[in-house]
Amino acid sequence: MDLPREGGLLTDNLPHPFHRTGRIGSWADWPAVAAVRRFGRSPAINAMRRNLRKAQPAIDLMLAPYRWFGARLGEAMPKGLYARALIIIIAPIVILQSVVAFVFMERHWQTVTRRLSAATVRDIAAIVDLIDTYPQDPTYQQIIRIAQDRLGLIISVVPGEPLPPAAPKPFFSLLDSALSSEISTQIAKPFWIDTLGKSNLVEVRIQLGDKVLRVLARRSQTYASNSEIFIFWMVGTSLVLLVIAIAFLRNQIRPIQQLADASESFGKGREIPDFKPRGAREVRRAGASFIEMRDRIQRQIEQRTAMLAGVSHDLRTVLTRFRLQLALLRENDDVCAMRKDVDDMQRMLEGYLAFARGDTGGPTVPTNMSVLVDEVAEEANRVGHDVISTFVGDPIVSIRPGDFKRALGNLVMNACRHGEHVAIRAAHDDGWLVVNVEDDGPGIPESELETVFRPFYRRDEARTLDDSGTGLGLPIARDIARAHGGDVTLAPAPVRGLIATIRIPA
């Protein structure tokens, strides 16, 4: 991919990002390309490009964790439309609710906590003032009673006791910082507080000369806890949003699932009589378009079937006349040769019509595959071939029995023509019907494993020929399998020969 010529400068020989990385391009090349297009070539631009390319490994190394995280996140995300739509609706609202609740509610509770702490510290400051004003009472019984009855504080005065050593300051404790700030401002004396205990009490110790005032206050007096409220708020709103989203999304996703099921059933040749467009306007348009497409395809199939029936009738009439005329002639070598030619024409005609008919073999019906596989093997054995068959799993599968038997018969006869021993191994498991036809013949080169499926393709060993000699055996088998929603593939056998595999959903 060459760059255009602009401004009289030849830029065709400039290394393009696509040439270097094989994808959108190296980030180091784009600035240089843009600079050359705008300013032309210069030593400064070339130096810039070299420097950017030298820095690219370091940038890639820095971005590696983000790319790894993005890849893991993509793998962990749900793949269904229903789950993705739920995430698209719920996740932004929950995140917004979380941010709003945290910012505004947390600020509110911080303000309330500071005010409660300030009120408690004012009560403690009043008690300190009483103790300093009336030191003649060594037991301070009246002050203790007033603090307990009027202020809701449990206090005691301990003479000759030092303050405990300072503990590490908690990182996330709003109460600790609020109390410490208020005590330093209102009391201005040495203190020690304990706000991390598991009890519902907060302890404050204040040094009053040769004695220590110990105060126990209820945690609710100093701190407004918002953890439970925040959790209840988030869980409650998330549940409400989830219930509403599920109720509405289920009705929106169900028509899409029905459309997908109808398309899949139609692709497998199954009847879908009860499908009607439902849901949102866009989904209804898609459903209506699908119905129009289905009807148009069915009309074309019916027209082709009618045309083929007419052609078949007319050609068979002509061949019948040939046979009658040959039967009236005297028997000789020329008449025998002509009769053989008419028989070959009859077989070719049947093969062409079968290939052109494609998937018009009727609706799918539950079929016992074990019996069908045994029938194909027995028919091959009756004409002198050595064919064995096995079946594993549930034998009942919804198929077009006539078409599927023809496809399997084509593969078996193709294998019998080139191998002495043929094995049919069928299994129905995990929603798939898999039938392997293995022979011990010369096989096919890997380069031609797909080519042999082309209609009328002939190799030197003619592995693609069916009984009629038209070269349509494998193409007919593949068309039938694909009409069932599956496929036919070929692979070399482990030792010698070829394995033909029919795999269809069941």
UniProtKB/TrEMBL annotation:
Residues annotated as signal peptide: none
Chemical reaction(s) catalysed: ATP + protein L-histidine = ADP + protein N-phospho-L-histidine
UniProt keyword annotations, A-Z: ATP-binding, Cell inner membrane, Cell membrane, Kinase, Membrane, Nucleotide-binding, Phosphoprotein, Transferase, Transmembrane, Transmembrane helix, Two-component regulatory system
Domain HAMP: 250-302
Entry membrane topology: Multi-pass membrane protein
Keyword Magnesium: no
Main location: membrane
Entry-linked InterPro entries: 2C_sensor_his_kinase (IPR050980), HAMP_dom (IPR003660), HATPase_C_sf (IPR036890), HATPase_dom (IPR003594), His_kinase_dom (IPR005467), HisK_dim/P_dom (IPR003661), HisK_dim/P_sf (IPR036097), Sig_transdc_His_kin-like_C (IPR004358)
CDD domains: HAMP, HATPase, HisKA
Transmembrane segments: 81-105, 229-249
Entry GO MF terms: protein histidine kinase activity
One matching Pfam family: HAMP
SMART domains per the UniProt record, alphabetical: HAMP, HATPase_c, HisKA
EC numbers, comma separated: 2.7.13.3
Highest taxon above the source species: Bacteria
Entry's localization field: Cell inner membrane
Domain Histidine kinase: 310-506
Protein name: histidine kinase
